[in-house]
Amino acid sequence: MQILHDNFQYTDQDHAKYLDRGYNIFDQFLSSDGLAHCNEQIDRMLNDLQPGRDPADIYCAHHQEPWIWELACEPKVLDMLKQQVGPDIILWSSHMICKPPGTGISIPWHQDAPYWDTTGPYPAGLWIGFDDMDNDNGAMSVLPGWHKKGTLARQDSGGGHGGFTEEIDPNVLPADLEQEKVQYKFPAGGMAIHDTMIPHNSYPNQSDRWRRVLVLRYMSAAGNFGPKDYPDYRNGDPFPRTGFLVCGQDTEKRGWEHSPFAAV
Q1: Is 87 a member of any domain?
Q2: Given CA atoms 106, 108, 110, 116 in this order, what sign does their dihedral have?
């Protein structure tokens, strides 16, 4: 089965837009068969979700789910990442964020990189939508060009934001924030990439539709990260964060694994 859409290409023009704006949107990323396959797998995962676990907090399921691993290793995806980070690429994180209708929390304005116990360089994160994405169901918003401003001042978020205990100090955000931000709006099967330093936020799902997203994060094989455990989405058993060499060479001889699955 062909997972990616025939029309998906990451061109030099796309890369120039990404470097300038800090993000880029592709309305056609998954093929129709690929989208149907992914949705079938997501339905199964949600059915197997540990009772009481928030479906917005399915971390690093590429350790358990071959379909996520295979999507993360698609050749067109890796070719795109080579332009951003070079030939030697590590997949170090995935996050399935599923907001059922009428649920979810507000995620405050933040930058990803300052929250990660990692060293770079980092390429963009892939934000893959399996439902139509818009303001009503809590799609992400970004501030174009703000990835060039460095690490912004942060403050305590005051709680109520899930795992986000900090947020960007509102005083450093633009006065015309609502006019300057760009809301992700694209059809199911679309994808957006965003620089790890671009400020972004999202709101709860206020619609009668799901908002199911997979975020994939990569880094250079010359990078590194500190220890962290994640819970298995099916039973809560902890497992360590692990980097997998998905392209190129283990340049620093760190012993990166090549796959979470012995048969791959």
Answers
A1: yes
A2: negative
